[in-house]
């Protein structure tokens, strides 16, 4: 039977749709497509709720079970894992209503809000690392900001994933420090054009091609962001003297104003007594 | 419930009667196994040769025929090593070597290369490389064969109505009719249209899988090739 290009494309599309016969899920629509597989929205008939159903291009590795056990407010909970009749693995997870981080940033949120999102992502990474899981493919498309401001890190990596070039560390083997690299790249991607050099330096340090020069873990990176927000010197940047003075001035503005006022009063009194 | 909805996934219908290529080769490569390889690859090889070597129709046919004849004589299948490449890639590279040699020999014979050429634009859009054309034709042939299998299967089971609904929707070139239009046209309910389509698609995927199974080395390569079809 001869078929045209358009029919071939259509058949390839319908052939790729997951066969959910025998499961409690009913397919709705495709909502995303990435390197690892395709995400659909589906209805869980048993619990009468909508879920996100991800079909992977490969069988689940043991690590997926580990990821399924991660419980953190910023990690999308996995409800169930399974295998389709054609051998592909799938898992279902909470369907998050919100915006991908790259779309969210396009709405020009404040710098403090951007850093809040990065902090939540970093906390999720730090937690996962303590459980022996790594993400391997952290990028804006894998971070969702929900309608109530909640942040979710999605698509935790499994063995077959190699990462996205822009956010992938140049490491021979991906591990926790590779995730630190990706977190730095994520930070850089959300920073506005005009940004304090100390903050830019944090991203650059995290993205160092020399693994040893990066932050040892996600928590160390977050600690440097905290220092920046508190007006303290950051580990990533040896600031020039003038910058240090200016930072000191802005951190202690009230005290300096009081001192200046005190000095002015003393000076005034001195003149009054003298003349 | 419509009985068609209780059919189950491809597993239920396809107990993997097809041997993998390695198993078939180890068992002496029956003519049926060989026919399945040739049925899937004859057209992709022909298109690849036409584009790669810019040969005319007849030369491309002769080279394609010659390649498969030579492959049978030169333990081509036994030398396939799945650790190095997929069978599809192995075959394409072998075709390239074979056709290049034959092409060069033909040129020498004609003292200066009096070989007939055909403008490439006449054959396929210039935007497609020979390798892309090979892959595209491989996919097209894979689905064409699976559709033939599906139609034969429907005829055997007396499910011509189901196939007609599937054909009217999934094989429509251009705008697809709505489920309501299909239901009216075939005198069935919309729910039946949905069920018939789901049933036919499941079977089609099963036949695609079986066609791939008999032309790949085993489960790993099978899944890799299926991913190439899906993406």
Q: What's the short version?
A:
Chain A has 275 residues and is α+β, with helices and mostly antiparallel strands.
Structural class of chain A: alpha+beta
Q: How many discrete structural domains of chain B?
A: 1
The domain count of chain A comes to 3
CATH superfamily of the largest domain in chain A: Transferase(Phosphotransferase) domain 1
Work out the helicity level of chain A.
40-55%
User: What low-confidence regions of chain B span 5 or more consecutive residues with pLDDT below 50?
Assistant: 1-13, 111-124
The main β sheet of chain B shows up as: none
Beta percentage of chain A is 15-25%
Structural Rg of chain B: 21 Å
Spans of chain A with pLDDT under 50 lasting ≥5 residues?
A: none
Order of helices and strands of chain B: HHHHHHHHHHH
Find the structural class of chain B using helix and strand composition.
Answer: mainly alpha
Q: Order the strands across the largest sheet of chain A as they lie in space.
A: 1-2-3-5-4
Task: Round the Cα radius of gyration of chain A to an integer and report it.
Answer: 25 Å
